[in-house]
Amino acid sequence: MDISQHYFIGIEPDAGLRRMAYAALDEDLRPMALGIGDFEEVLAYVGGQKQATVAIAGPPRPNLGLMAEEERRSSLEPMPAKGTWKDCRLAEYLLYTRDVQAFVTPAKTSACKAWMRSAFHLYEKLFELGYVNHSKGEVEKRVLEAWPVASYAASMEGELLPKYSLEGRLQRQLTLSNQGLRLPDAMQFFEEITRHRLILGQLPTDVPYGGDELDALALANTAYLCTAQPEEVELLGDVDEGQVAVPRPRMSDS
After folding, report:
1. 164-201 pLDDT, tens digit each
2. Per-domain residue ranges for the chain?
3. Cα dihedral sign, 176-181-184-188
4. Cis peptide leading into 208, omega within 30 of 0?
5. pTM of the complete model
6. Considering only CA atoms, which of 73, 68, 39, 69 is closest in space to residue 56?
7. Is the distance from CB of 23 to CB of 33 less than 8 angstroms?
8. What's the CATH fold of domain 7-62+107-246?
């Protein structure tokens, strides 16, 4: 697939106060857009792209009850304990078995969190704008589900630090840089700190990026892998219920 005119977009629908974080990468993994906006702003940006693969950190629909089927449960390894993991999607249980912390999507829309319902609506609108599920193959406008924690974990051996802490943001930005994204060196943060500025509380605000923006970049990178290097991505779950794209473990460049 020719990706020379393709954008790879990540959307984190749970950026607080009904806001969404979004990021776009070009074929060389250079950021073309990065920010936080409301639903309509994000939809307008994504809808305006002619060629794009979009990764959303949210489910496309409530669960379909697959994990409540005893035959399916007995086929899983490890098999879930009796009475557990029934009101969730198959993909979410499979993420759990891989030590990836993820949300649980109920079967009833009314029981879903507000950000999940926003994700449902976002998928619906993107389909109306001509996007199709990534499982349809090589098309100009595709959408898929991914989870940023899994994106970072693909090239990490240690623990992922808290998302909004300084150390967690530095860790995430450095990890994404090691994965090939053309981002500012997060270590510049320390180069800009002096004793005087620290006493005054004047810390750099442009590096590292915010936690939600970094998650959007991680999602955009997963969208890139799904398009340019599909062999580096595993799809977990059921196609109808919603599959999650998970990058395969790989060594970082550091």
Report:
1. 999 999 999 999 999 999 999 988 777 777 777 777 77
2. 7-62+107-246
3. positive
4. yes
5. 0.92
6. 39
7. yes
8. Nucleotidyltransferase; domain 5 (3.30.420)
